[in-house]
Amino acid sequence: MAPVRVTRAFRLSIIAATIALALSGCMQTAGPVAVAQPSSDLDYIAYGRPYGPAPAGAMDTGGDGAISALGDNFASPRADAYAPAPVAYTAAAPGPASHAASYRLDAGDKLRVMVYGQEGLTNTYAIDAGGSITMPLIGSVPARGRTPASLAAEISAKLRNGYIREPSVAVEIEAYRPFFILGEVAAPGQYPYLPNLTVESAVAIAGGFSPRARRDVVTLTHTDASGAARVVVPLGTSLNPGDTVVVGERWF
After folding, report:
1. What is each CA distance from 128 to 51, 125, 141, 196, in whole angstroms?
2. pLDDT per position as a tens digit, 78-131
3. Can you list the positions of beta strands (E) in the chain?
4. Which fold has domain 179-247?
């Protein structure tokens, strides 16, 4: 029995030693391992320059590839990359002259004459059939064919001649003389003139064409200092104060 016990005890000791050795090998912990993770070119471009020195090969500009060229552009931006674009300023073109400034006065126009500091002379005056206005102190003043500025100068000259030392006069058009529309319209007659009026607008003011009207052209009569002129014009033609429009009858 003694040898058997010794052999069994010896085996147990060997087994225990083997288990101890195995456990000691499994329980060892590995030390920290440094893994180099170089940034790629695209990461470097997308996220910008790091705080530390650039990793080797991150922005290798020695190559001839497209990424290398793109990296060069991002790495060294131009000084004018964010400079504001220059703005060119041009002077606005002057607008067209006022229609009233070159307008020629005639019978039927109503004018507002203002003599500054002289309330008795400031008033509304109508140009009569003879082409004149009549004012206190100076009487009749010819207005036909004049512009408003020319009439103001004439009134000022008359007032300066023995009435007011240095008169200041302004003339404005309060109402234009009317225009006339006859022929094949719903309501022919005389109508107040409005600036920028056309033949087509005049027909609309007169109620539109009658069923028998010719609708493409009309006869327009215009009178000025050189006399009366009668012409056939399309509907888009501009009208002047005192003009007469005749809408003809169609034949079919």
Report:
1. 93, 9, 11, 25
2. 544 444 444 333 333 333 334 566 789 999 999 999 999 999 999 999 999 999
3. 110-115, 123-126, 132-135, 139-142, 169-175, 179-183, 189-191, 217-224, 227-234, 244-247
4. Outer membrane lipoprotein wza fold like (3.10.560)
